[in-house]
Amino acid sequence: MQKKRITIYDIAKELSLSPSYVSKALNDHPSINDAAREKVKQKAKELNYKHNSLAANLRNGSSKTIGVIVPAINQRFFSDVIAGIEEKCNQEGHSLIICQSLESFELECKAIDTLIRQNVDCILISVSSQTKTMEHLLNAQVHDISLIQFDRCMEDIQGIKVLNNTFDSAYKATKAMIDAGYKSIAFLGGPAHIETFSQRKAGFLKAIEEAEMLIPYVYINENVLPMEEAKKMADKLLSSKLPPDAFLTVSDHQALGVMESAEKLGISIPKDLGLFGFANEDFSALVKPGLSSVDQMSKQLGISAASAYFEHKKSHSGTSMPDEVIYVDCELRIRDSINRGSKG
Amino acid sequence: MQKKRITIYDIAKELSLSPSYVSKALNDHPSINDAAREKVKQKAKELNYKHNSLAANLRNGSSKTIGVIVPAINQRFFSDVIAGIEEKCNQEGHSLIICQSLESFELECKAIDTLIRQNVDCILISVSSQTKTMEHLLNAQVHDISLIQFDRCMEDIQGIKVLNNTFDSAYKATKAMIDAGYKSIAFLGGPAHIETFSQRKAGFLKAIEEAEMLIPYVYINENVLPMEEAKKMADKLLSSKLPPDAFLTVSDHQALGVMESAEKLGISIPKDLGLFGFANEDFSALVKPGLSSVDQMSKQLGISAASAYFEHKKSHSGTSMPDEVIYVDCELRIRDSINRGSKG
DNA sequence: TTGTATGCGTTATCAA
DNA sequence: TTGATAACGCATACAA
Are A213 and A241 in contact (CB under 8 A)? Predict the structure, then answer.
């Protein structure tokens, strides 16, 4: 148990060298010859010396630390994204500070503040659902921190945005159902003011239009994100005079609601009802029948977001972030829930 | 866009004060009167000053930062634990640095090293499945970092360990099945060398013994953690001459394997087969029939682990960690999978 | 109540 | 090749 932390001074004293020389040796400075360098490193190991990043970072003005702010760490999508970010940061020798906003604007501001104080070099953020203004985000940029948004973005902020191509995936998912022979497809969406949800709706509509499918307006429902509400809506539509024969939902939980409704009403999936969800949750492969879903490749999204920072840092060091949108393609996980067997 | 960071020197200059005075004012030092303090804070806000934690921490010798090392961030159990830790840390004004070992001993060592360099005050760790030695953990303690283990612990390390009471929960879960009228219960376990799994087995056996139930030795199986293996084992047992009429598994994924096996063999759950899982995964409430499972209260576990650090810090500051085990009680989530209807 | 001086551990610059 | 020095930004002991 050592009382005082071992520093380069201790190493220097032991070897009768100067601290600056030791520092250079440890950092593989070219002016130090191999023998001396090895001797210093040897002694450092012997004394169980650990480089003090705090001091070095203060001196260097960079913390080699990246901050991440997400609504909730323990939401599958975000924990996957973070896992991807961590992996990339680790490769690049950077540390990761994690904050959660818990969907609160106030906590989000506090998190930004913390990260500025911590001198992070970059902030990766997916904004809370409450967030409508962006001074706090701009403030990070003012403090010379690279800001990269992912998934849930504020449109008007200059900088890199990393997004799923959800328009495209919704289009493809819908098309997959049309190809499987479903004739009248309903849509269960999320809050319209969130970009990713409006995109999903737009993708859905494009596929419907292309197929020249006529859809009653009551088939298109926004803001039914909670499973219970999705279920209620499915109940209503499936018991109506003109029931849909398929659903595209923007979450797997909604899809689950539809499944329960169908079961209750004695409607068989996929024979009489097709179903396509979003997010490819763990349970989606496990329920019966297997739920077709859009895999958002969330870990890849994290990797892409972190990589965007490192690439910018390496190539355009100094210049400000480009105003760029990076799309991470989703992949369709086709399962039994749209496997109708026969077409038409 | 400010070129240079605003420091207390800038504030001091603007107000014709000394930097130390500004520092005191910002930190609510008692020797500063209200008027002066407010004036300084006002100016700080005006200049968009942000306290530099790096510098302060270097000066203070404490980073107000806690490091967490888990096998994988995006495993439900761990992301829940982390969410709890984050919440507590946030309350206490501490930051969180997250590392994942990805079940690799090497990465775990690297993570410890990173956290030592980062000057974290405390490391919360759940060791990788590869970890057999503990020098790296002791080294953290040598560097004056509080070490708190949770879930997967190295027995011989002095300090606080935060654990689920899995012995007790396995016992209760088994008992719940006995009470529901199941007569011959089989056990599907995990690697025996991991404490939490041997505890689950022991709890199971205690309940069996108490009920004076005679169990064929082939009912007790360790090391069948993967779902596929659990399924194979269930196939074997359920097709044997003396099939069990219930299973306790140590994971919900195993239980899912049992469900598939039962379905294939035309055995009805819960009528002819009871089933109790572990971890209360998201899907457990969603599968049909609902899977009874042990809820490990993982977020609470994270809160408890972090709280243990803060309490120790506040009350016994300076002294080394006590050798203490904190148990976080699990809760049984009883669902249809053991709802047999009639007893006997 | 206010200010001065010093050090936390590192690294870059410059000089020897 | 080696070393002295200053600086990063802050907070504390001490002096005024």
Answer: no
Contact B117 A286 (CB under 8 A): no
Predicted local distance difference test score (pLDDT) of residue A130 = 86
Q: What is the pLDDT of residue B340?
A: 87
A247-295 pLDDT, tens digit each:
999 999 999 999 999 999 999 999 999 999 999 998 898 888 999 999 9
- Residue A24, CA: closest nucleotide via C1'? C11
* Distance set, CA B56 to CA B7, B59, B91 (Å): 12, 5, 20
Contact state of A73 with B55 under an 8 Å Cβ cutoff: no
**Strand D nucleotides below 7 A of a protein CB?**
1-13
Query: Could you say which nucleotides of strand C lie within 7 A of any protein CB atom?
Result: 1-5, 7-13
d(CA A277, CA B337): 26
- Summarize the confidence of residues A137-150 as an average pLDDT: 95
> What is the C-alpha end-to-end distance of chain A, expressed in Å?
76
- How far lies A20's CA from each of A15, A24, A36, A52, B41, in Å? 13, 6, 13, 15, 38
Residue B266: count other Cβ atoms within 10 Å of its Cβ. Answer: 7
- The answer to whether the beta carbon of residue B26 comes closer than 7 angstroms to any atom of strand D is yes
Instruction: Name the 3-class secondary structure at A332.
Output: strand
Give the span between the Cα atoms of A313 and A288, in whole angstroms. Answer: 47
Does residue A18 approach strand C to less than 7 Å at its CB? no
B294 φ/ψ angles, rounded to the nearest 5 degrees: -90, 120
Complete DSSP assignment for A97-128: EEEE-TT-HHHHHHHHHHHHHTT-SEEEE---
Predicted confidence at residue B191, as pLDDT, reads 87
Residues in A touching B72 (Cβ below 8 Å): 83
DSSP state for residue B240 in the 8-state scheme: S
Q: For residue A341, what pLDDT is reported?
A: 74
- The residue whose two tokens read 């980062």 is B118
CA nearest A335: which of A201, A177, A187? A177
Instruction: State what percent of residues in chain B have pLDDT above 90.
Output: 86
Residue nearest to nucleotide C10 (CA to C1'): A56
Query: Are B74 and A79 a contacting pair at CB < 8 A?
Result: yes
Residue A3 in this model has a pLDDT that exceeds 90: no
Q: How would you list the strands of the sheet with A220-221, edge to edge?
A: A220-221, A185-188, A246-249, A274-278, A292-295, A331-333
Hey, are the CB atoms on B53 and A119 less than 8 Å from each other?
A: yes
Q: Which residue has the higher pLDDT, B129 or A200?
A: A200
The yes-or-no verdict on residue B344 having pLDDT over 50 is no
Angle between helices B166-179 and B195-210 (to 10 degrees): 30
> Does any strand C atom come closer than 7 Å to the Cβ of B30?
yes
As a whole number, the mean pLDDT across chain A is 93
Which pLDDT does position A1 carry in this prediction? 42
Strand D reaches within 7 A of the A17 CB: yes
The CA distances from residue A310 to A24, A84, A92, A132, B277, in Å, are: 25, 14, 8, 28, 43
Whether B275 and B246 have beta carbons less than 8 Å apart is answered as yes
**Residue with tokens 């989000």, as numbered in its chain:** A108
Phi, psi of B100 (to 5 degrees): -120, 140
Residue with tokens 């064929």: B216
Q: Residue A195: what pLDDT?
A: 85
Residue-wise pLDDT for A11-34, tens only, equals 999 999 999 999 999 999 999 989
